[in-house]
Amino acid sequence: MNSLLNFLANFDYQALLFFNSWIDRTPSLDFLFKFLAVGLIYIFPFLFIIGYFWSQESKKVMVMSALSGVFCWQVVSKLVSIFYFRARPSASELIDLKEIIFHRPDYSFPSDHAMFVASVATMFWLYGYKKLSYWTGGIGILIVIMRVVVAVHYPLDIVAGLILGSLISWALFKNRCFMEKYIVIPIEKIIFRLIKH
């Protein structure tokens, strides 16, 4: 068991160094890496808003997808970090890392960005929005890889986040009758009232 853990730790560290070696090649590339790692995630709220007004059927899907993503990001990732805390690479005194963004020194495992994007893309897939799932999944993979490049996460933080986000989204979808009746429909009513005023 120890040899497996040592292998995983070494793999994680070597993969982090490989991705992080992409930094400091040109200032424009570094700027792009920063934007993709930090800024691209903000496309999702716009996606939810546009999707919500796209059709009557898409309202429920957008609310469920957003709820699933926010639940993973704000609840599950924080609960996991209480039981298993792993510092970010920048806080762990790895001497070979190149940093181009500052991130508060909080937990690294699991990646809440990875949980969010996996949860949203999975929910779209489960509701039959396959093309949207592919697009959001592709954007999500780009975001989480860039978060390893800029040394905010280890690769296994990302893998764990993707797996957990997908599983939680699947579990919420399996309970969609309850979710829709007691959470989604009341939220839709609130949104309708806000728009009406």
From TrEMBL:
Source taxon at top rank: Bacteria
Keyword field: Membrane, Transmembrane, Transmembrane helix
InterPro entries for this protein: PAP2/HPO, PAP2/HPO_sf
Transmembrane segments: 31-54, 66-87, 134-152, 158-173
Pfam families on file: PAP2 (PF01569)
Ranges of residues in domain Phosphatidic acid phosphatase type 2/haloperoxidase: 61-173
Protein name listed in UniProt: Phosphatidic acid phosphatase type 2/haloperoxidase domain-containing protein
Organism from which the protein derives: Candidatus Berkelbacteria bacterium CG03_land_8_20_14_0_80_40_36
